[in-house]
Amino acid sequence: MIQELDVDGVPTLLAPTGGPMRAGLTFRVGTADETLARSGITHLLEHLALAPLGLADYHVNGATAPVFTTFHMQGSAQDIATFLTSVCANLTELPTGRLEVEKEILRTEHSSRGMAATDDIPLWRHGARDFGITSYPEWGLAALTGDDLRQWAARWFTRENAVLWIAGKAVPAGLRLALPPGVRQPVPAASSALPQTPAYFVGGSRAVVLDAVVRRRTAASVFAGVLERELYRALRQDGGLSYQTTAGYEPRGDGNATLRALADALPEKQDAVLGGFVDTLAKLRVGRIEQADLDAVVAKREDFLGTAEVDAARLPSYAFNVLTGERNLTVDEHRAELKVVDTDDVHEVAREALAGALLMVPEGHRADWAGFAEAPTRSADTVTGTAYREKEGDGELHVGVDGVSWLGHGGPLTVRYAECALMLTWPDGARQLIGDDAISMRIEPTMFDLHPGAIRVVDSQVPADRQVVMPARDPERIPQPRAAAAGSGRREPVKRSWWEIPLMVVSGLVALVIGGGTFLLTLGMFVTETAESDKGWLWSAIAVGWLLTVILALPIVLLRRRRR
């Protein structure tokens, strides 16, 4: 059984384990609580809390997710007590002396992380807010100060906003959770950037991915297992089209859960994988649920619930439910709910999932043929304002008092100042505005006939707390119109040898003399009568004359081409 205790005012969960002792301190704060302009503040604070602990001979780590941040460790009771006590002390008195060092570590972590197939899905579903922020770089890091972090810690890293879980015999002796008082923070409301669903977008991955938001319930978790079995059978076992076919179910903390499924594909098999993926979804949507799949998924869950370590394994998810205010089930209640799930329940989840689905398809593919609407890549309206023509092409930038719009190829794109999630600014005058709906627009002054005051208008209208200053760019990375770029190209002039010009002059004169004489001789052969006995040698002379003319003119052509 999982016991519910209290340690220094922090709700505590304790469950026995037959393995090594482990524990975690979880807070109800994550990236979804940030703004895009201050993104990275929770992750940075997590790093600062762990940095003074240095090297350890035991497993210790931290993690920042959309709605929670956790510090966890595996080791002896004394090691766990020391670790968690130190983490709380560091959260209360932040070691800001390592602030800039940890910022650089986070930038390195982001650059070396690589791109996952599902990274872009949050921004397409939610935009540049709350749950969509995980799709973007941590642009807020550079401007964060020690005071910013202390204020963030005082609001979110408190006794009332934390849960401690321990897999072991008892609470370690000497453990102290010296956290400030606060309040339990609710999970942020999820925004939407999709005007209609089901929808699709073209991703940069070779995989096909389904993203759906469903009501959190046992039948929905069972549906994820059934979907995974169907995809495996259709795309790997029978079709030999995919290697990886997965499906997962993750509670979001607000009464809903995210359901995702993925199937990878070789470039030449993407059409077949997309078609097979959509066929599998359609099969489940119309209620063709295999009872054998349902039984297999339920049996697997029941096997897990029957293990000796089930309570210890459930501790992190149990703590998540305590933090978010959602109901925790006992093992017996889990079993009871699993037993009553039938094919009708799974069919209902399938219809719910597909009604609000977001499908990512590989580049060069579409899904409108399957009933998925294209997710918006353009804005529905524009702003009025001063128009500035593009130096190349027929595009036009409108700078108004309430926003900016781009009209041209790929447009219209509009970001209103009141709905601007972030504006990146460069010292050379470039600006990139990202709207709450994830519409992004870049203003490069070198590419427009901009009035000097246009950028000042934009800067004055976007709130200062949504502006992030970027490092200066290498001049070669600043875009230039093609004509200007070609005109500014610096090339080393080709140096002539001293003999080139005399050779060209002599060759030209001799070619002119021989060519002129040959031309007159050729003309004479057609306008005057010539004895048959003389025609043979005259035509031979003409052929030689023209050949010499070409040979003499050849140095002039080659030397001029070399010069160019």
Automatic annotation (TrEMBL):
Keywords: Membrane, Transmembrane, Transmembrane helix
Keyword Transmembrane helix: yes
InterPro entries referenced in this protein's UniProt entry, alphabetically: Metalloenz_LuxS/M16
TM region positions: 501-525, 537-559
Entry superkingdom: Bacteria
Protein name: Insulinase family protein
